[in-house]
Write a structure and sequence with these properties.
329 residues; alpha/beta; Rossmann fold; six-stranded mixed β-sheet; 12 helices
Length: 329
């Protein structure tokens, strides 16, 4: 009995020792890595999901995350945050650039000062793995191609497709690549006619809605509609509801805000291209931690885009993708 008690005490002390060492290790890691994450904005389901993935990585990997949202949706505001992070001496910077050209210099300056930079969501000019650590995100051209194939299937290879394009003056290569992939895929089918319309004020849902209402006749004569980003998808949906054609025209959109998922269930939207932003946020932080610990990082960390339809909406993997974040939008 005494021997058994001794073994029990030793076992208990070992557990306490291991637990203490793990806590010390966790605390050390928390102090060791301080990572600044600079998104484009915090508005919309996509960016809330990015933030959820980032917060999850902070807990899982034991690092301090500084979530730095630009004061306004502008490149100067974002550049100011990059420079501030460099001055503060953070361990690394994770950036979703508003423009691909303007941030090249501050990113290069951070790298020169031995502060590694990871780019996510939207690529910048330069070479991943050389000018910055890596790029984390979807293959946007492939995402657009997936949307194109879905439209082709929905229309049985025949009809008129209205493509609501982003403003020509924006510097968003991710959106441009989606639209290019979509148009190239549709162009392979001679019996599908492409009608293009540029949404000039495309960064705001209400503006997209208003512009769509102005082209209601174009919408009514289309057999299908494609939108390449979240605000465009929501704004177009709201306009189609007001016109009374929601569900009567095949509709493929991008991203998965709550309103779009509900519209998918009702048959008002027929397919959504999902980016899995929570995973994107998580992998961005994980890649930074791996780099800081001396591990080899691939120049491009792909996050696969997924097609969501009524047929696969209840699949466990799709539900897992849609689980974060909890939001009213």
């Amino acid at each position: 009995m005494e021997e058994a008690m001794k073994k029990s005490i030793i076992h208990y002390l070992l557990i306490l020792t291991v637990s203490f060492l793990l806590l010390i290790s966790y605390a050390f890691t928390k102090d060791k890595y301080r990572i600044a994450v600079i998104p484009k904005t915090e508005i919309g389901t996509f960016w809330k999901s990015i933030h959820a993935g980032v917060k999850l990585s902070s807990v899982a990997l034991g690092v301090n995350i500084e979530w730095k949202v630009p004061f306004e949706y502008s490149t100067p505001s974002q550049i100011s945050l990059i420079e501030q992070s460099v001055e503060e001496g953070v361990s690394g910077i994770i950036l979703a650039p508003l423009q691909r050209d303007s941030v090249v210099s501050p990113v290069a300056n951070a790298m020169k000062k031995k502060i590694p930079v990871i780019i996510f969501d939207t690529e910048i000019k330069g070479i991943a793995g050389k000018d910055y650590v890596c790029f984390v995100g979807i293959d946007n051209k492939k995402g657009g191609s997936l949307a194109g194939k879905q439209i082709v299937e929905l229309l049985a290879k025949k009809g008129r497709v209205l493509v609501l394009r982003a403003p020509t003056n924006i510097d968003q290569p991710n959106i441009v690549a989606r639209e290019k992939g979509f148009l190239e895929t549709i162009a392979l089918h001679k019996n599908i006619q492409i009608i293009e319309y540029v949404i000039q004020s495309g960064s705001d849902v209400d503006n997209v809605k208003d512009e769509c209402l102005k082209i209601s006749e174009k919408l009514k004569t289309a057999d299908a509609v494609f939108c390449s980003y979240e605000q465009s998808t929501i704004g177009t949906l709201l306009a189609m509801r007001q016109i009374g054609i929601a569900g009567k025209i095949k509709f493929v959109g991008f991203d998965t805000p709550k309103i779009a998922i509900e519209a998918l269930k009702k048959g008002e939207i027929h397919a959504l291209i999902a980016q899995d932003p929570a995973r994107m946020g998580y992998l961005s932080v994980k890649s930074m931690v791996d780099y800081l610990e001396g591990k080899k990082i691939d120049p491009v960390v792909n996050v696969d885009a997924r097609i969501i339809t009524q047929n696969n909406l209840d699949d466990p993997e799709i539900q897992k993708l849609l689980a974060l974040p909890i939001t009213d939008k």
